[in-house]
Amino acid sequence: xxxxxxxxxxxxxxxxxxxxxxxxxxxxxxxxxxxxxxxxxxxxxxxxxxxxxxxxxxxxxxxxxxxxxxxxxxxxxxxxxxxxxxxxxxxxxxxxxxxxxxxxxxxxxxxxxxxxxxxxxxxxxxxxxxxxxxxxxxxxxxxxxxxxxxxxxxxxxxxxxxxxxxxxxxxxxxxxxxxxxxxxxxxxxxxxxxxxxxxxxxxxxxxxxxxxxxxxxxxxxxxxxxxxxxxxxxxxxxxxxxxxxxxxxxxxxxxxxxxxxxxxxxxxxxxxxxxxxxxxxxxxxxxxxxxxxxxxxxxxxxxxxxxxxxxxxxxxxxxxxxxxxxxxxxxxxxxxxxxxxxxxxxxxxxxxxxxxxxxxxxxxxxxxxxxxxxxxxxxxxxxxxxxxxxxxxxxxxxxxxxxxxxxxxxxxxxxxxxxxxxxxxxxxxxxxxxxxxxxxxxxxxxxxxxxxxxxxxxxxxxxxxxxxxxxxxxxxxxxxxxxxxxxxxxxxxxxxxxxxxxxxxxxxxxxxxxxxxxxxxxxxxxxxxxxxxxxxxxxxxxxxxxxxxxxxxxxxxxxxxxxxxxxxxxxxxxxxxxxxxxxxxxxxxxxxxxxxxxxxxxxxxxxxxxxxxxxxxxxxxxxxxxxxxxxxxxxxxxxxxxxxxxxxxxxxxxxxxxxxxxxxxxxxxxxxxxxxxxxxxxxxxxxxxxxxxxxxxxxxxxxxxxxxxxxxxxxxxxxxxxxxxxxxxxxxxxxxxxxxxxxxxxxxxxxxxxxxxxxxxxxxxxxxxxxxxxxxxxxxxxxxxxxxxxxxxxxxxxxxxxxxxxxxxxxxxxxxxxxxxxxxxxxxxxxxxxxxxxxxxxxxxxxxxxxxxxxxxxxxxxxxxxxxxxxxxxxxxxxxxxxxxxxxxxxxxxxxxxxxxxxxxxxxxxxxxxxxxxxxxxxxxxxxxxxxxxxxxxxxxxxxxxxxxxxxxxxxxxxxxxxxxxxxxxxxxxxxxxxxxxxxxxxxxx
Length: 990
Known about the structure:
This protein is an alpha+beta fold. It is built from 34 helices and 18 strands. Helix 9 packs parallel to helix 11 and helix 14 packs antiparallel against helix 22.
């Protein structure tokens, strides 16, 4: 049959009634054509002829040659003329491998004829600066005020507030009394209530600057950093376990938490605070803050199975790492820019001007990183010294290796044979006992499992040595998988049906687990096959297994005849490199403590003697000098203080499936734009960069071809902290305002895009942002500015008429009544009970017991003793688990560490009342509270008065005193203390 011409086939296809009746879907039918054939020349990286096809607004606008797509008129659309080949002067695409098929041209034609429908991809804002949050920050002039409003206003902030209130027909509320203000300020800045003495002193202080002095005192307290670090850790979703299926702990996450506390207490300039968390190791080398701050990158959840148990080459491994980078991006841009950039991983952002390619450019920034423990020196001088010694060691080792390679080549076959024997005899591979054979899991213990060795031919065996496993994972320990009962047999029949000789029989009674001690048996047997059979398996969790590190079969010449021989088994989990049948005879085993391998020592001595003989006197001298120099450097390294460890985002070289990029010198993984976010559908390779819609700093990173991984993060950090980046400064002042006022100027603190809330006071937001950015970027100064304002000092009193106009208090005509966060309630309970431990920093306390730590830990809070002094620290130092929230704190709306919590819920539920009444913490602390009261009064009335002063900073009313005294005399002082802890006044700021 003759081949149809392109034009003929196209005409027939386009004329098909079936095709004409079908609506063309842009996402499914058209976009893939553009991605395959057009985007490389008309996309975000290149726009030949000024034409761009990856964004709706640009594609429909056209390029230098005019409009390319005329909706409803394919025959008038230059695009169809170019891609169909009907224009002999210009055929698109120029790459013949990417030419469109007849069917693809027909799809484009039908799509245009049907109206060129293109879903909104967020590019419709032709000028991104048209959106409020993306406009450059211009410090606004203060609104004009009436004389009455001037009298009320204390700061420029108030001018913006009262002007808006006037426009809305509202008026500000009266100022709160001093007792209210000190409690409000104390909880806002340090998260703890003031003492009765502090309240009384402040209430009676005639100094007109008493309030300002109060704020300064609170800001200077080390408690301030603890309070505000909690807010920050909510936003960055900090946790101390990985989350996901195997919620393993992160014992070294806490240095990042301490860094945040320290940064707030030091009032670190915000720009530096931002830079340190993204690229502190690069921009501020030699500083402990620059390393510990990288805990920000690793703060979120991490898929242990997807990383540690699945190699990166598999699809599930690729997905895990893709999602890991997605979390890093979402955390970075959401925290510092208040944008939902992660919505662009499958397509251009539907609402904001963020193209998909820019999302993947951000992925490229983090492409070399993993979440792992990072070692560092907190003394810069020690850090420099260590780097110098390590560099020197590398240099000398390189020279030594070059000389040894030369001598090895001269030594020839004799040396090769010696080294082969050394490997088989067992070299000093660390933790080799953690590698071995592992059977499939069994639900029952009395199940037979066997593994056998093929010696290649029938030979006499004189001794059998069984090497047990040692699994350090989660402290499982020595003797892992060693059977409770077992036997060994020799035969020339691989099926062990004929000629079977039993040489070891431990099947009649349980055997004590030997730990890592080798089990040696002298025997007299000849055969080709040796089988180890477990008749009663070792317990694991809710299942049973057989695991052995090594099986040695020695001949009369003391040679291990099993080394390197084939292994067969009933079953095997085969999870290399840790578990596989071949490990059983690989000859690599680290002897347990105290065991010596004289034969290996002899072989080592022979090797050294051979190399020395080949080297001659001069070569031997040089070898000795190199080795002495390395030994000297190693000795000096050993004398340095041990390094600290922080769980951080960093380059990783690991073992097993979780290797990281360290094995390749930290070279970032190649990042491709993924069609629909599918890791199996990579399209074009992308380069690192950021968001072009943000005005000011350039979104393109000018990096040399030989740039290092950290240069990418440094470029992003500088972009984030650039004074011309409007989002950075608007975002942080809005967050601080929210925590003081109970509601943000933008009430979606993590979303300044089109789907977020509009600012109620855009001029105030920009005034705050400009003041903050231009005057030292001091968070403490921002506190002062907000807290000294008249709007902050209002009472919570509600006016029904105004409530009808603005029931949500969006315009701040009164102070919003706020509940205390869960941690503030807990800390206050400990404080009034006299049990709060003010120790600063260090590893977190655990208010739970762990069950089944070796696999998927179960964090059991109900098993914790609330009277344990180790747990009486501030809640900021609590070990934060992802998979199982702390029940008491969860009842009070504690943040979920698996989610970026920009603002917490404030609920009132029966569970809260029950938790305060019956939880072990409340019961135990109520008793301690009562004990604290005993010496403070001789009568019940005096003690109740002391209790009210401690709990609320005030004396009880006559009615309160009468009721509580009666209750205490009937039910005991401890129960009266429980009542006090359950009062609304205790759980609210005011």
